[in-house]
Amino acid sequence: MAESVSRTVYFVSESTGITAEAYGLSLLSQFADARFVKRYTPFINTREKAQALANELAHRAEAEGEKPIVFATMVDEEINAVIKHAECHYFELFERFMPELVEVVGQAPSHKSGVSHGVTNLENYEARIETINYALSNDDGMRLNKFHKADVILIGVSRSGKTPTCLYLALHFGMRAANYPITEEDFEKGDLPDELLEHKQKIFALTIEPERLAAIRELRRPDSDYASLRRCYKECQMAQDMFHRHSLTVLDSTTHSIEELASLIKKSL
Amino acid sequence: MAESVSRTVYFVSESTGITAEAYGLSLLSQFADARFVKRYTPFINTREKAQALANELAHRAEAEGEKPIVFATMVDEEINAVIKHAECHYFELFERFMPELVEVVGQAPSHKSGVSHGVTNLENYEARIETINYALSNDDGMRLNKFHKADVILIGVSRSGKTPTCLYLALHFGMRAANYPITEEDFEKGDLPDELLEHKQKIFALTIEPERLAAIRELRRPDSDYASLRRCYKECQMAQDMFHRHSLTVLDSTTHSIEELASLIKKSL
Q: Which single residue of A45, A69, A264, B30 could bond A109 by disulfide (Cβ 3.0 to 4.6 Å)?
């Protein structure tokens, strides 16, 4: 098979398809030189929809001369059978793991779809929405007195990655994540506020390379003092000193993605 | 095995563990009556860390009289072997799918970890951060003139779920999602602004049951007119009329989670 030919990949599920996409992309990420055209087909929750998709797969297999690759999570056996027997290379999560897992857990599976990403428990769901609102309303440290309610507090200079990481912590892990940007006043005083340092055990300090910071700030306010390399160097250095003085847990947002930062934070608690 | 006994489950990865957690939770969600204690151990990226985890698993197996369940994504064969041979029920993603997928793709896997959730491509990564900032800066419709840059525009009454859904679209799917809350002025005028309706093809209108809306608003502003059932009924009715009049795509946020709403939106584009 020529390396330059792109393969069509489908992510299929009776529900959101989030799990099918997650594990499928993870497997595909191992093929750095291959090209994949991704098609996303969630909510295949009736035999009719499954049959329509099977027809599409057959059509595509014929047009492309290669059967499409399908990553799926299907809990209904009948719907699963329709896709499984269609013209595709079928990679289905439940079939491969469930028989052994049923043995280990010692219980029969429910065969209900949409349990992991639906509104199955209204109370839990609302608590999660609340953590998102918490992250938003406690963004940019407007309310120093609200930190006692936080699970974690992210601190760092402006544009060091606090907000996206807080939102990821809230959306993905349901954590109450507040954020405190080091202010002009803190730099003048040369230290962090006492109200913040009271909560030292839940603070994670983000560092970033001054060059990267300057590039990010430049997009926001071109040609400003705020985006100048000189100012970025100075802020990063002063922030680093404060983090060190208070022995705070420091994470580098230059080399870590928001998912990695969030995972490191979750792991450290 | 008694149903009330809880089993210990580990999510293990050389990188963030996000994929291991996603597919593991999806499988576990099929056992409604079982109780699981979840342990999250990302960044097991050396043989030493793997050995330490293997020791922990052995210790736990002995203490609990049951081997823990492990969901893992491991691309390094040596590190994988350490956990695989530890005292656990081992469910590993790559081993189960990779041999067949390698055949289908016709290429050797890279065995690199952290590809799917790391900063592997700085340009893509920064574009993703930019979509999050876009969602935040275009939250609550402050800038009607910015809608031409949006991939999608979510509209609905205050607290109908627009913001969390926009953030999920940005964080998870990298989409530029703007949001427009129907304003007091729109209700008085009885219609949506023309600047918004110009972008009709990318509008998704969120509906919500008035009772649910009132409960959500009550948490925000207790005993207010804003949270009253009367006002919620009226706003929902008027919004529904506007959506219908302009034949907008309508999604119900009462019965759909933010993941489901985001998946439905992605699918419809």
A: B30
CB < 8 Å to B267, chain A: 40-43
Handedness of CA B149, B152, B157, B163 (dihedral sign): negative
CATH 3.40.50 domain position(s) in chain B: 6-105, 122-268
Two tokens, residue B145: 């003139």
Give the three-class secondary structure for B151: coil
Give me chain A's average pLDDT, please. 91
DSSP E strand stretches across B113-169: 152-156
ipTM for the predicted complex comes to: 0.85
pTM above 0.80, yes or no: yes
CA-based nearest residue in chain A for residue B161: A129
C-alpha B121/C-alpha B126 separation (Å) is: 9
Q: Does B228 have pLDDT greater than 90?
A: yes
Where in A86-188 does DSSP place strands (E)? 89-92, 152-156, 177-181
DSSP annotation of B141: G
Task: Compute the average pLDDT of residues B116-123.
Answer: 72
Q: Is A167 within 8 Å of A132 (Cβ atoms)? A: yes
Q: Give the pLDDT confidence score for residue B2 in this predicted structure.
A: 44
Closest residue in B to A261 (Cα–Cα): B16
In contact, A8 and A69? CB cutoff 8 Å: yes
**Residue A86 carries which side chain, given as an amino acid letter?**
A
| Chain-centroid distance, C-alpha B241 | 30
**Record: fold of A6-105:** Rossmann fold (3.40.50)
Average of pLDDT values for B52-68? Answer: 97
Q: Which two tokens stand for residue B124?
A: 């893509």
A/B interface, count of CB pairs below 8 Å: 204
**pLDDT (mean) for B80-85:** 97
Angle between helices B18-28 and B93-105 (to 10 degrees): 110
CATH topology of domain B122-268: Rossmann fold (3.40.50)
Handedness of CA B73, B77, B83, B84 (dihedral sign): positive
Reference B217, options B205, B233, B204, B203; nearest CA is: B233
Residues A200-208: what's their mean pLDDT?
Answer: 96
Q: A interface mutation test: which of B19, B29, B36, B175 has the most A CBs within 10 A?
A: B29
Reported as a pLDDT band with limits 50, 70 and 90, residue A145 is: low
Query: In 3-state terms, what secondary structure has residue A229?
Result: helix
Which residues of chain A make contact with B17, given a CB cutoff of 8 A?
263
Contacts (Cβ under 8 Å, ≥6 apart) of A135: A166, A167, A169, A170, A176, A177, A178, A179
